From TrEMBL:
It comes from the Bacteria. Keywords: ATP-binding, Nucleotide-binding. Belongs to the ABC transporter superfamily. GO terms for molecular function: ATP binding; ATP hydrolysis activity. This is ATP-binding cassette domain-containing protein. The keyword Cell wall biogenesis/degradation does not apply. Residues 5-257 form the ABC transporter domain. InterPro entries: AAA+_ATPase (IPR003593), ABC_transporter-like_ATP-bd (IPR003439), ABC_transporter-like_CS (IPR017871), P-loop_NTPase (IPR027417). The lineage of its organism: Bacteria, Pseudomonadati, Pseudomonadota, Alphaproteobacteria, Hyphomicrobiales. CDD domains: ABC_NikE_OppD_transporters. The keyword Nucleotide-binding applies. Gene3D superfamilies: P-loop containing nucleotide triphosphate hydrolases.
């Protein structure tokens, strides 16, 4: 098996407090997992606020340096990528999607401006027709087209539409991995499932792996292949999503699950489906 992404004993500490009363906060403790290059999957990181999910995502994207441990993407150490060209190449293959789609697009520019910039930056395109074609192709992957989006501003679109466009923007460089940090928490509840279903579709049709970060167990249960549950920086449980979420072992994940799901996976599925419908 060759690894798409490999985290080995990753730790992140922060110094907090003032000069006289500083202490160390262990935000991420000894996290290890591997995503297989030949088996695209939806790998979900579940946890309550402050459990270390975002810090883990930021390290995977190269935006935060681990205190110790190693992060490798397609065989290369993420922390060792220094050159501009190396960073650009890495970023084209590992793309982020953020929580707030309204913040992802500056309201003063039309949406297509951001999509075209991404095509120029990551694909090195200069020809207008080629930029249009790459943008249109990515928009089609999320059920939209350039004709529908061209010339429009973010305030003219719903949160759900904007999040779809944010996914399209991430697809323009043809990534192998998408890291989506709470991508549906600010999207209208009625549209959440359509966004997470889209992730499943990208996994199956385009072979993109998704790291889905959420505190929402129902969407996690519904779309994840594997899941890790983080609590105060530790991975307290990991494995096949429906097993972990349907039959949690650790006290924290038990409490978390019982709040939403009964232990019986089939009953849990029914409750989730009823919630989703
Ligand atoms: N730059 C920083 N400096 C100091 N502490 C930080 C920093 N970034 C994160 N932390 C702390 O690290 C811990 C983990 O934060 P993190 O954002 O990774 O959690 P999270 O699970 O993503 O939570 P949320 O969903 O609220 O973002 C928290 O206690 C947070 O306050």
């Amino acid at each position: 098996m060759s690894a798409l992404l490999e985290l080995r004993n990753v730790n992140k500490d922060y110094r907090i407090g003032g000069f006289f009363d500083s202490s160390t906060l262990h935000a991420v403790k000894n996290v290890s997992f591997t995503l297989d290059d030949s088996k695209p999957e939806i790998f979900t990181i579940v946890g309550e606020s402050g459990s270390g999910k975002t810090t883990t995502a930021r390290m995977i994207l190269g935006n935060e340096t681990p205190t110790s441990g190693s992060l490798r993407f397609m065989g290369q150490s993420i922390t060792a990528i220094r050159s501009r060209a190396g960073k650009l190449k890495f970023m084209s293959k590992a793309q982020p999607i953020f929580q707030n789609p309204f913040e992802a697009f500056n309201p003063l520019s039309t949406i297509d401006y951001f999509l075209f910039s991404t095509a120029r930056r990551f694909l090195g395109l200069r020809d207008k027709a080629a930029i249009d074609a790459a943008t249109d192709k990515a928009l089609h992957h999320v059920g939209l087209s350039l004709a529908e989006v061209r010339g429009r501003y973010s305030h003219e679109l719903s949160g759900g539409q904007l999040q779809r466009i944010a996914v399209a923007r991430a697809l323009i460089p043809e990534p192998k991995l998408i890291v989506a940090d709470e991508p549906v928490s600010m999207v209208d509840a009625s549209l959440r499932m359509s966004i997470v279903n889209l992730f499943r579709d990208l996994r199956d049709r385009l072979g993109v792996s998704i790291i889905y970060i959420t505190h929402d167990l129902s969407t996690a249960y519904y779309i994840s292949d594997r899941v890790i549950i983080m609590y105060k920086g530790d991975v307290v449980e990991s494995g096949v999503a429906q097993e972990v979420l349907g039959n949690p072992q650790h006290a924290y994940s038990k409490a978390l699950s019982q709040a939403v799901l009964p232990p019986d996976p089939e009953a849990a599925r029914k409750i989730i489906m009823a919630k989703i419908a």
